[in-house]
Specification:
Elements (H helix, E strand, L loop, with lengths): L1 E5 L2 E9 L5 E9 L8 E3 L1 E6 L4 H12 L3 E7 L19 E6 L10 H21 L4 E5 L3 H13 L3 E6 L3 H12 L1 H21 L2 E4 L5 H6 L7 E3 L17 H5 L6 E8 L7 H9 L6 E8 L1 H12 L5 E4 L7 H7 L2 E5 L12 H8 L3 E5 L4 H9 L2 E5 L3 H13 L1 H18 L2 H19 L1
Parallel strand pairs: 5-6, 5-8, 6-7, 8-9, 9-10, 10-11, 12-13, 12-15, 13-14, 15-16, 16-17
Antiparallel strand pairs: 1-2, 2-3, 3-4
Length: 443
């Protein structure tokens, strides 16, 4: 251990040996400028978010602003919504971004080729993350076989590993696959349950997006002491309120329309029939548009259906980049979110959090027990309908179309909730505490 003075702070470097002979380094910075202020441990942090979502990028940037050396990794070929994936003018020098590419297009439709791509991605990602030599690695939204490679590799490199559970991947997969391909789906689900349980037991820390995941973790034999529940949040700083009549809305002919907007991934756990039902219901109202800015297998299915039976009020758009996303949300009169019953206990739709930042009424179809329903109801930000109830869903949409005062109340309440709840400084405090505990367990 050595000590030196940097800008009035004492810095002690700790080098730890690991079983494989590799080393990792941490820096304890004792800030002397303010009497009574506690020492802060600055770490080398690898944040891996397979999807590249906006709020994870916000966390990486906040941790870097606090002095940690942070590298943000994500999957280059993932087609889902992204945060700011390039360096910004005010990003600190100790923050870097590294996209990981498998060198070919990625499709979720062919399960065999998808698994091959996931395994390849895991091999590439594990090497790239380990070469950064992090003190702590946190990884989320990642296919389980890729996650297993990352965990094994960073542990070998001497890094603590934190499993960030956004969705309960194995349980959701088991339910959906068992319904779609009964016998084989059950076997695949059992394999993934075993794999996920094994990784969770070997993790130095686990961050859950919802309390709802805790009972299943206990069933997996995971110790409570390694778990912390840190709810997801919206990237408020990157989603300012925008007017309805904005450049993006004008460009797409939406500024003078009443717009129901679905934005984000439209996958197997999202029912596209509900968007079709909206298009059918409002077909004779020329002022209504159902805009779908998305990607995924259910998005492709909805487009194919529209090709054979066109609806003039359905507008299909690709996922929109982050620099125009505030205008995308601003163009909407109602923001639509969907979640099937099968995925209800095991998924937390992050789009609802962005919707709250956007300050527009939310129309949500989801299982009543899902966290997203509790969140929208707590914020008084929109109308929630149980998954599968198509008539009730259309009736709720009709109410939002015809009750401007109700919509105005939802708009104000949603944004007010976001401004009060999505404080990145408080969120980063929670993650710093988790990293300290995980590093102590790993050491």
């Amino acid at each position: 251990m050595r000590s030196e003075s940097i800008h009035g702070s004492a810095v002690r470097s700790h080098v730890h040996g690991t079983g494989s002979g590799l080393r990792r380094r941490e820096h304890l910075v004792e800030v002397g400028a303010r009497p009574g202020q506690r020492a802060r441990l600055l770490r080398r942090i690898a944040l891996h978010d397979y999807c590249g979502h906006p709020f994870q990028f916000e966390l990486s940037r906040e941790l870097a602003r606090r002095g940690h050396e942070v590298r943000h990794f994500f999957f280059a070929e993932d087609m889902g919504p992204k945060g700011n994936t390039g360096r910004l003018s005010d990003d600190p020098a100790n923050f870097s971004i590294e996209p990981i590419s498998i060198g070919r297009a990625y499709s979720k439709q062919n399960l065999i080729r998808r698994r091959e791509a996931d395994i390849l991605y895991g091999e590439l990602a594990s090497r790239r993350i380990a070469s950064f030599a992090p003190d702590v690695t946190i990884s989320g939204n990642t296919p389980l076989e890729a996650q297993a490679s990352i965990l094994k590799s960073v542990h070998r490199a001497g890094s603590a590993f934190v499993f960030w559970m956004q969705d309960f991947y194995s349980l959701a997969a088991a339910k959906i696959l068992s319904r779609k391909i009964p016998v084989l789906g059950h076997m695949i689900g059992a394999y993934y349950r075993h794999l996920e349980a094994s990784m969770l037991r070997r993790s130095d820390g686990i961050v859950l997006a919802s309390e709802d995941f805790k009972p299943a973790l206990r069933g997996f034999g995971v110790e409570e002491v390694v778990i912390d529940v840190i709810p997801n949040w919206g990237a408020l700083d990157t989603l300012p309120l925008r007017p309805k009549d904005n450049p993006w809305a004008v460009r797409h002919g939406l500024s003078d329309k009443f717009v129901f907007l679905y934005s984000g991934t439209l996958a197997l756990k999202h029912n596209p029939d509900l968007l079709w039902a909206l298009a059918e219901h409002f077909e004779k109202d020329p002022s209504v548009v159902i805009a779908v800015a998305a990607s995924g297998v259910s998005y492709d299915a909805l487009k194919a259906r529209n090709a054979s039976e066109p609806k003039s009020n359905l507008l299909f758009l690709p996922l929109q980049p982050m620099d125009v996303f505030p205008d995308v949300l601003g163009a909407a009169d109602v923001l639509v979110a969907l979640l099937e019953d099968d995925a209800g206990p095991f998924s937390v739709p992050s789009k609802v959090l962005s919707y709250l930042c956007g300050g527009r009424p939310i129309l949500l179809s989801a299982p009543p027990s899902n966290l997203s329903v509790r969140l929208v109801e707590k914020a008084a930000a929109g109308l929630c309908v149980p998954a599968g109830q198509q008539q009730a869903f259309v009736a709720a949409a009709d109410r939002l179309r015809t009750e401007p005062q109700t919509c105005a109340g939802f708009r104000a309440a949603g944004r007010a909730y976001a401004e009060g709840a999505f404080n990145i400084s408080r969120v980063a405090d929670r993650f710093e505490a988790m990293f300290a505990q995980a590093a102590a367990r790993a050491a």
